[in-house]
Structure formats: structure tokens, C-alpha cells
Amino acid sequence: MTDWTGGAARIARITLHPVLHVMGEAGAYGMARGLVAARGATIVEVETNTGISGFGEAWGPPGFTAAYLDFVLADWRGARLVDHGALFHRLLARNYHFGVQNGLMALLSGIDMAVHDALGKEHGLPVHALIGGRARDSVPVYGSGGYFTADPALGLQAQLPRFRDFPACKIKIGRGVADDVARVRLARETLGPEMRIAVDANGNYGLDQVLASMRAIAPFGIEWYEEPLSPADEEGYRALMARREIPVATGEALYTAFAFDHLLAPRVIDMAQPDLALCGGLSQGRLIGQLCTLRHARLSPHVWGTGLGLAAAVHLVAAQPPYPAVTESEVDPPWVEYDVADNPLRDELLREPLRPVGGMIAVPDAPGLGVEPDRAALERFRPR
Q1: Beta 138-144 vs 360-362: how paired, if at all?
Q2: Residue range 110-139: average pLDDT?
Q3: Which GO BP annotation is one of this protein's (predicted)?
Q4: 20 to 30 A Cα–Cα from 108, which one of 21, 63, 80, 97?
Q5: Res. 328: pLDDT tops 90
Q6: Would the CA dihedral through 129, 133, 138, 143 be positive or negative?
């Protein structure tokens, strides 16, 4: 008889695997706030006393989370997998002076993801079955890119063809209204009238600048305007909601469901975009999804890291109920972000990475996240 309490499954060891992909200064790309010459993350491995390993992703440059590991080990080592929620909130409550916008939350996000992976493997269940059940067999993905680049030859014009296999795409803006218009016009003229185009300013504007940008680009048909304001500008989001000409999305830099509630409770955003490697993992992601249901907002996880973060986002969206619609008549299912830049941390880190086909990713049915890191690749991408 299966022990559904998971009493025998306890955390024996937590190991961090930092990974890094270096593009170099000439190949740097990014957003209005600046470019990056490398991409990194930390893979969190949770080993149980039953011989199972679960894996998760912690956001940020390698080393960002490592300093917090010794701090949490005393709580997590020996704990039952099924008690992960209680442990998470105990750490937050006991260490409230730390706040949540830090590497500790990134580490806890990776641990939470890894625990869900281990729990699924322990009981032979996919992660979506642990967080509400499967509401859809596949999830739609949009192509994310259109970056600012250090090399003009690698700029927007060169990136646009990568969107051809997707029904929707997102490009970077945020360097002034005239530049916003030029970039959106180029995308629309190149990709045609059927392509659904979203934009992302990465919080590089104030309210007046956002309103001017929205007025200028709205005629091109924009699906959503991502991070129009700084994450800290909650009053700005309230003022923007009443005057917006394009749906507003944000969330990649928000930590825990508490921060999302500040924007969802007054309904000042249209779409929540949690990054599961940063916001608190699948547990907080599920809670954010429930807030979206309560507030009739859309959910679309932010994904820019490794293949593990992508897999977790797929499971979260698979479990998100289509309320108020039913799945069969869901007009616009929640999207998952799929970065179109070269990303070996997604495409080469896993034994069998998830790949979109026709703009969709099939929801894994294997136990846990349904993907597994290649240990040789973990070593290959380890910073030297």
C-alpha cells in the first residue's frame, strides 16, 4: 500500500550546481536597462533518504544563492518532503528582517522546485498532478527576444526571423518613444498582420513616458505591454490602469505571492508573470495562479533561465484552470515564455529538453518535472 504521507521520504542532502553560459562582450544582448555578456543560474539538487534526486532552478548569477545554503540546511536536512510549505513559511516568518528580495528567496525557489520534482518521482506523479491537476494537455508558447544588442548586426532585424515558428512574440523596447515606434513598426512589417506582438520595457519608464509610448505604438496592435514601470512603482500602476491603451503585464521581478497581491487585489495589472526560479517556486507560483483566478487576471510565467525553469512553468500553466471559461472554449490560454536566443542552459543541459512544436509544448506526464539534467552537462557548464 502506498504511503501518501511521504513519511519515508526525507531530505538527506542539498547540492548546488552553478551553471554559466558566456556570450562575451561582442555577443552581449539584453534590455533597455542594459546588456549582459553571460547567462547563469544554479541547479538545486535535493536528494532523499530513499535514493531519489529532485532538481530545481534558482535564479541569478552563479554564487548568488550559494551563500544562503548553510543558513537553511539545518531546517531542510532531515525534513519530510511533504512539509516543504510549512518550512518555507517558517523561514520567512523567523527571518522577516531579511525581506524577500534576495538570494535567499531564489534558493528557496530552487529547493521548492526540486522538492516537487522529488515528490513526483517518489509517488509516480507528474508535478501538475501535485499542484491542481492537468487542465490542458499542451501549453502555448510565445517567442521572446527582439533584444538590444552590442553588435548592430545581431539587432532586431536579424532576430525577427526566429519568431516565424510562433503564433506570438515579444520584443524589447524602452529607449524612447521614437525608438519604440521604429522597433514595433519593423516587427509588424516584417512579421505581418497575423503575428501577435507584445513589448517589454523592463521598467525603464515613468508614468508619463509609458503613456506616450502606449499612445504611439497602440495602432500597431500590441497584445500586452510588459513591465511598463518599475516593480516598486505600485502607485504608478494604479494610475496607469485607468489610462492604459494596451493590457499591462508584470511580475518577473516580484518575490512571493504577497507582492503580486499588491497589484492583483486592486486589479491594476492584466497579466501576472511570476518567475518560478525567483518568486518562491511552484508553491508560490500556484498561489499566484490562484490569485489570478480570484481577480480574473491572466497568468503567464516568465522564463529566461534553464530547461528546468521552463519545465516548471509548463506544469504550472498546465494546472491553471481556465476559469471563467472551460478548456474546450478557452479563447486565449495562458502563455509560457520561450526565449529565442541561443540558450544552451535550456537546450543542452537536459537529457531530453522540452521543445515547442507548432507553438505548443506538450505537458510531460513522466513523474516529477518530466525532465532530467545531464550530469556531464552540469559539469561542462560549471564556471571555471
Answers
A1: antiparallel
A2: 97
A3: carbohydrate catabolic process
A4: 21
A5: no
A6: negative
Give the mean pLDDT of 197-205. 98
Q: What is the mean pLDDT of the chain?
A: 95
Long-range Cβ pairs for the range 71-77 (8 Å, 24+): 71/104, 72/104, 72/107, 72/108, 72/111, 73/14, 76/11, 76/14, 76/111, 77/11, 77/12, 77/13, 77/14
Instruction: Spell out the domains of the chain, with CATH numbers in brackets.
Output: 11-125 (3.30.390.10), 129-374 (3.20.20.120)
* Confidence at residue 326, expressed as pLDDT on a 0 to 100 scale: 76
Label residue 327 by pLDDT band (50, 70, 90): low
Output the CA angle 287-353-196, nearest 5 degrees.
65
Record the pTM.
Answer: 0.96
| Grid cell for residue 220 | 500597431
Between strands 53-58 and 38-48, the pairing is antiparallel
Cβ atoms within 10 Å of 310's Cβ, excluding its own: 31
Distance CA 85, CA 282 (A): 10
302 a catalytic residue: yes
Confidence band, pLDDT 50/70/90 cuts, at residue 63: confident
Give the tens place of pLDDT for each residue, 68-82: 999 999 999 999 999
Cα 242 versus chain centre, distance: 27
